[in-house]
Structures are given as structure tokens and as C-alpha cells.
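User: quick one, sequence for these C-alpha cells?
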């Protein structure tokens, strides 16, 4: 085969199995495909959260996380990660107090309207506004409970503890079978641990939240009242800081060495209970829980919320663009498991098709400097309209100068008259923040938003200058991959700009000086791009201008394991670079198999699997598409696609010498439990794989990557179902239910027929 500027990429796939796969097999029905794709669980969420926990531990912060599905969308799944130990409760214990209070109200022994006399001797410090009142004062129980939850008011809490009694709260806790949760003291009172201290853990808090939400410990009316108070939370340093304006209800808790937030994310149809507990572990960090713990709680909240918004998602069809799908999707999945949220958008600009590929997260990102593409687009539109010209000068004052990237701030003196052309050029080529802010004043934020609206972009938003505060979500900046490639596509096609303005923007992008991402991956290649990096995000977007294979591309990343800029770039930049190399290599790949003509049904899948080096040809010029796939070939593809690592204890089977091309892959698959040998200890590398064996291998690989699939009890619908061996029945049922494999158009399954190399190639692409 021939390569043109081909960048060799060895790719580790994460999954190998999701939709229908084998030609000439019938495609699964829309109903079965929807059923398979809509089934949700928190397995992948575990992979997203564990890196945050691990990174926090390295920084000396212990983390415990619990998430429970309350909606049924995720199969009522529940995960508990991190330390199961008892944590100092701080104000999260107030959820037990408010639950006991509402039980007493339901029993008629108390009422929310009832008033309690609060005297000055019960007033304590810390959070809350009640301490500022004049005493003695008669205060309604409703106000006390509301202040306890919304403000974490310590005086109100202690009054309610006196009203209820420690024994009443203990009675509630004991009735739930809790062994850790304890109310041992009032707020801001000396503690004599362990008896006179307050404790919680993730498991019990999550259970309490579940029972409140499902009205198992209180009535539906009391549940609604508690949630109303939690929705009105005023302490927004954790969940509230991470998710302003989002549908959440929560209760914070913080002391010198702990920082917690617990409650509900109430996305319609995806409601969950969530607990995030943190504590400092190093003696030298005592008293720093808010400084160290709050950012971790915020990162967990964002990660969980983005997961809920993204999952379950309609998977991108591998058939849309097999070569790019197979090249990029594994990198995205591997990054997610490392705590990196990734979104990739790719649009064909060659004129050959309207293909578009969107992979990874569909949720908004902080754009950093990539939002400057919206500004330059608006500027050039105004130039086309004659309201501005690039030769026009604007006076830059000293007050306009801001830090960060760019050379304008280093000019010898201000005020200085600078042309719009120079400002725009510096904004794109150097990501100059001073130039950007001056252009925002010239162009106008409202005009940028008007253009975004005109272009139908729903997320991309420029709401503030560089380095400016964003008091509200509307005053911040946002992008997502879909909007970004839509804007790039419209620029490239000149839909709202003249050819001259389009070419000017692309010329500036070609002269990009910030080459830490696409530029580092593809030095000297025909690309035009705009980078963006800030806090824990790092992006690059633009065009790969390979003649005849031009594309628009956006790669957005958010490193969820850190808020440190340097660490985020160190972690995120290689991901952006890997995706750039994979895409460029796939676009440059020229298939050369003489037995796979362009119109052959499996040609795009063979090209994709070959370009990713998951399967080789039978010779330099042939692929052998109709030849049976051997056990060695198929298991090697599965092993590579799952990124399996072979053990260090020699060969796995007697007939697989260590120097065999497939030995390491097969040993790794055996160690993972995906493949078994023959009764005599051999593997049978050259044996053809029957369709029954194929189903068994695919089912094992799927369960390795995704967890167990429940056993199926229905009858197989194939006319030759009686020919399917008992050992393969469950595998065939599971694969069919998952949309992985189905029968032929004549109603048969043909369990003993061999699978071909072409079918194997397609299965890899569709399962990536």
C-alpha cells in the first residue's frame, strides 16, 4: 500500500462492540438499536471520576464520592468511590436534623408555623444570619429550618436540636440502620470525639438522600419542602460555584479540615443523588480544606453534570466516516478514562461530501482564546459591509493593556494608534489579549452575538473581554464542538463573508505562532488554526488543508483532575496532538489493495482498520476480504482494539511461540478472559472462526469493556436456532440484544459458517 505523508499511529481502542456489524447480515431494527443505545449505567462515570480521586490523593486530599440514579435512566445504578471511612460531618449532618424535624411535623407534634423563643445565650458564630437579630425573639420553625439549610445557620440549627433532642435524631439514624452517621454535639460546640462529634460517610448520606427523594422517610409534601430549601442554597462555593443556574438542590458542609457538598442534580429524566466529601490528609494542610477541597468538589460536580447531559447519547455512526471514526474515537475514550473531557468535530471541506463527525462530549467548554474566531468573523463581516476597514486605526490606551499572551502589551508606549489589521492579526496569530479587548470595544459584544444568532449557533457565546470577570453565566464565554465546526465551515465556504475576507482569516490562521497543539503535532504541514488555553482547558481548531482532503476540525479538552494551568497543558496538549496526528494520518492514507475496489461494500471499513494498523493485508497489495478470518487474526484485533497489555509470564498457548506476530495480543486476551484455548492446551491460531465462536468472543470482549450483560431468556428467532450450540446461545442472545450481530436476510444465523476478513474489519469499525 502507498502512504502519502502518513503519520503512523498505534491506537488503543476502548470498546469493540456496539451496533450491527457483519455484511451481509441484516441491520438491527430501529427499535432494537434504540434499546441498546438508551440503556444506561454509571460504569463510564466511574472511569471519569476515579482519576479525580487519584489526583486529589496525590495532592493530599481524601475524596469520597457517591452517585445514585433516581430516574431509572441509568438502571437505578449506584456507585461509591474513594474512601468509605467516616468523615467529620460539618453541616451535612443538618440533613438528618431536617428529616427528623419533618417527621415530627407530620406526626402533628410540631408545625412549621409554630414559634420558638430564641434568646441571646443560644446564639453562636459561624455561618447564618439569625445571629444578627435582636433577642429574645420568637422565630417560626419554618424560618429556623430554612436558614439551617439555605445558609447553614448554626444558631438556627442549635435551636432545632434543642427542640428535637439528640435522641430524636439518633432514633431516625438508628431506624435507617446507619452505623457511622452521628449527631454528637451542637454546632460550634467543643467536641469530645468520638462520642461527642458529628460524623457521616458517603454510603449513608446517599441512602438518606435516596429515601428523602423517594418519600420513604418523609411524606411527598415534606420531601418537596426539603428540596425547596435545598434548591435555595445560598452557600455556593462548591456545587453552586461549578453549576450556576443549573437545576440542583444541595447542602454544603465545611470545617477547617473538611469540605463537602451533597444533594441532587435534577436534570429532567436524569435525576440523581450525589455526595462529595473531602478532607485534607497532610498535617501541614490543616485548616486549608476550603482552599484545597472546594476546587475538587467543583470538578466532580462538573464532571458528573456533563456526564448526565451527555449520557446516554446517540452514538455517532461509524459508517459516516469510518477511517476518521476509528482513528479518533479510541483516543477520546482513553482520554475520558484518564479524567480528560474531550470533544472533536470534523467537517469535510473538500467538496466531495458533506460528511461531519462529532465525537466525545456534546456539552459546552470554556473556550479560552478559541472564542476569538467569533470576534474575527464579526470584524470581517463589518469590513465587508463597509462599516470598518482593516486600514482604520484605533487608539490603544494604557488602560486597555492586559496580561497573558501577545506582544502588543510590550509596545514601548501608550497611547498608540494601531490598525485594525494589526489588532486582528495579533489576536489570531499570537492570541493577543490586549488586541482582542480593543477589538471587542470596536466591534461590540452585541454584534458578535447577533452574528452567532444569524448563523444558528446555539452555544458559541462571547460575553466578556479577556481577563474580565463573569458575574453571571450570560456574561461568560462558551463553545462546543458542533458550533465550532459549523462556524469554521461557514467561514471556509464564504457563506457570510467575501472570498477576500475568508482568505484573510485563513491566512492569519496559517501564520499561527502558538504551536503547542496542532502546530507541535504537524510541523510544516498545510494547516491553519487557532489555539485556546486557560485554567484547565486546552483547545485547537481550524483547517487541515491537504489537497483534495480538506477538513475543518475542532478539538476541545478539559482536564478534570486539576485546576493548575501548567499541569492541564502538560496533560491536555498531548491529547490534542494525538488526535491531530491521527486525523492527518487517516486523511493522508491511500489504500492500495487490488482486491478491494472502491465500490466494494466493505472498502471503507477495510481502509479504516488498515489505516489504524489493526489488521494487515494478506500481502503488500491484497487484503483477502472473502477469506475466513482466523482465530489469531480476530483475537489480535480484539486485543489491540481494547488496548490490552500482555502479561510477563511467557506465551499463553503451547502452539503460540513467543516470536509469533500474534503471541502478545493473544496472551493479553487470554489474561483478560476473552479467549480460551483448546482442551489440549493449544490455541489453533490458523483455525477459521465460526459465527458462533465470533458471538462468544464479541460478548466476552463487550463484557470486559462494559461489565456483565444480564442473561437473556427469550427464544432465538432464527430458523436454524436449533443448530446453535448451547454454549453459544447466551452469547448470540446478548450480541443480538446489544445490536452487535443479527441473522441473515433469509432468517438464518448460520452458526457454523466462517466469518470473513471483510466482516471482521467492519465489526471493528462499528464497535469502536
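Assistant:
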Amino acid at each position: 500500500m502507498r502512504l502519502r505523508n502518513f503519520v503512523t499511529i498505534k491506537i488503543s481502542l476502548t470498546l469493540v462492540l456496539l451496533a450491527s456489524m457483519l455484511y451481509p447480515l441484516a441491520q438491527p431494527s430501529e427499535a432494537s438499536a434504540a434499546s441498546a443505545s438508551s440503556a444506561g449505567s454509571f460504569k463510564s462515570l466511574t472511569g471519569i471520576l476515579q482519576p479525580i480521586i487519584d489526583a486529589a490523593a496525590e495532592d493530599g486530599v481524601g475524596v469520597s464520592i457517591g452517585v445514585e440514579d433516581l430516574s431509572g435512566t441509568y438502571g437505578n445504578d449506584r456507585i461509591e468511590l474513594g474512601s468509605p471511612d467516616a468523615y467529620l460531618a460539618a453541616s451535612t449532618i443538618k440533613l438528618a436534623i431536617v428529616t427528623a424535624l419533618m417527621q415530627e411535623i407530620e406526626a402533628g407534634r410540631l408545625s412549621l408555623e409554630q414559634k420558638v423563643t430564641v434568646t441571646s445565650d443560644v446564639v453562636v458564630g459561624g455561618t447564618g444570619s439569625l445571629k444578627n437579630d435582636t433577642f429574645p425573639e420568637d422565630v417560626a420553625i419554618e424560618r429556623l429550618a430554612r436558614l439551617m439549610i439555605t445558609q447553614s445557620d448554626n444558631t438556627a440549627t442549635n435551636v432545632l436540636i434543642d427542640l428535637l433532642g439528640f435522641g430524636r435524631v439518633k432514633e431516625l439514624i438508628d431506624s435507617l440502620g446507619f452505623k457511622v452517621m452521628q449527631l454528637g454535639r451542637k454546632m460550634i460546640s467543643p467536641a469530645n470525639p468520638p462520642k461527642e462529634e458529628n460524623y457521616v460517610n458517603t454510603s449513608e448520606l446517599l441512602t438518606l438522600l435516596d429515601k428523602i427523594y423517594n418519600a420513604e422517610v418523609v411524606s411527598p409534601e415534606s420531601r418537596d419542602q426539603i428540596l425547596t430549601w435545598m434548591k435555595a442554597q445560598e452557600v455556593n462555593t462548591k456545587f453552586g460555584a461549578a453549576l450556576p443556574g443549573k437545576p440542583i438542590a444541595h447542602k454544603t458542609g465545611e470545617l477547617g479540615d473538611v469540605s463537602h457538598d451533597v444533594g441532587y442534580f435534577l436534570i429532567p429524566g436524569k435525576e440523581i443523588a450525589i455526595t462529595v466529601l473531602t478532607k485534607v490528609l497532610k498535617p501541614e494542610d490543616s485548616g486549608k480544606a476550603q482552599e484545597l477541597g472546594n476546587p475538587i468538589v467543583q470538578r466532580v460536580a462538573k464532571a458528573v453534570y456533563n456526564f448526565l447531559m451527555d449520557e446516554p447519547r446517540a452514538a455517532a455512526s461509524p459508517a459516516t466516516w469510518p477511517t476518521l471514526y476509528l482513528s479518533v474515537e479510541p483516543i477520546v475514550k482513553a482520554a475520558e478514562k484518564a479524567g480528560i473531557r474531550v470533544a472533536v468535530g470534523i467537517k469535510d471541506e473538500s467538496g466531495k461530501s458533506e460528511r461531519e463527525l462529532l465525537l466525545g462530549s456534546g456539552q459546552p467548554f470554556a473556550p479560552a482564546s478559541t472564542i476569538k474566531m467569533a470576534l474575527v468573523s464579526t470584524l470581517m463581516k463589518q469590513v465587508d459591509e463597509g462599516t470598518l476597514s482593516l486600514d482604520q486605526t484605533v487608539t490603544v490606551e494604557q488602560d486597555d493593556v492586559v496580561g497573558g499572551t501577545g506582544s502588543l502589551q510590550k509596545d514601548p508606549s501608550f497611547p498608540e494608534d494601531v490598525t485594525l489589521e494589526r489588532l486582528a492579526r495579533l489576536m489570531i496569530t499570537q492570541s493577543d489579549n490586549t488586541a482582542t479587548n480593543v477589538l471587542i470595544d470596536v466591534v461590540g459584544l452585541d454584534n458578535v452575538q447577533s452574528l452567532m444568532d444569524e448563523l444558528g449557533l446555539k452555544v458559541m457565546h462571547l460575553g466578556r473581554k479577556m481577563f474580565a470577570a463573569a458575574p453571571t453565566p450570560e456574561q461568560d464565554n462558551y463553545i462546543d464542538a458542533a458550533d465550532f465546526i459549523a462556524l469554521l465551515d461557514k467561514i471556509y465556504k464564504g457563506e457570510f463573508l467575501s472570498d477576500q475576507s475568508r482568505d484573510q482569516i485563513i491566512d492569519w490562521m496559517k501564520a499561527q505562532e502558538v504551536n503547542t497543539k496542532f502546530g507541535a503535532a504537524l510541523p510544516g504541514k498545510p494547516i491553519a488554526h487557532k489555539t485556546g488555553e486557560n485554567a484547565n482547558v486546552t483547545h485547537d481548531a481550524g483547517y487541515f488543508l491537504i489537497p483534495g482532503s480538506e477538513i475543518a476540525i475542532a478539538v476541545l479538552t478539559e482536564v478534570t483532575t486539576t485546576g493548575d494551568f501548567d499541569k492541564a497543558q502538560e496533560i491536555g496538549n498531548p491529547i490534542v496532538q494525538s488526535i491531530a496526528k491521527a486525523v492527518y494520518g487517516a486523511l493522508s492514507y491511500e489504500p492500495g489493495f487490488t482486491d478491494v475496489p472502491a465500490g466494494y461494500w466493505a472498502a471503507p471499513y477495510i481502509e479504516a482498520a488498515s489505516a489504524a494498523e489493526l489488521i494487515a493485508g494478506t500481502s503488500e497489495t491484497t487484503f483477502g476480504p472473502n477469506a475466513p478470518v482466523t482465530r489469531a487474526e480476530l483475537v489480535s484485533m480484539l486485543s489491540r482494539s481494547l488496548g490490552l497489555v500482555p502479561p510477563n509470564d511467557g506465551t499463553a498457548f503451547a502452539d503460540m511461540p513467543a516470536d509469533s506476530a500474534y503471541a502478545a495480543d493473544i496472551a493479553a486476551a487470554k489474561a483478560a478472559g476473552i479467549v480460551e484455548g483448546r482442551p489440549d492446551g493449544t490455541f489453533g491460531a490458523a483455525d477459521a472462526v465460526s459465527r458462533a465462536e465470533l458471538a462468544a468472543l464479541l460478548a466476552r470482549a463487550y463484557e470486559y469493556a462494559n461489565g456483565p450483560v444480564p442473561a437473556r431468556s427469550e427464544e432465538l428467532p432464527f430458523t436454524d436456532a436449533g443448530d446453535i450450540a448451547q454454549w453459544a446461545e447466551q452469547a448470540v442472545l446478548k450480541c443480538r440484544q446489544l445490536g452487535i450481530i443479527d441473522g441473515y436476510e433469509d432468517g438464518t444465523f448460520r452458526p457454523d459458517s466462517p466469518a470473513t476478513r471483510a466482516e471482521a474489519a467492519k465489526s471493528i469499525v462499528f464497535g469502536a
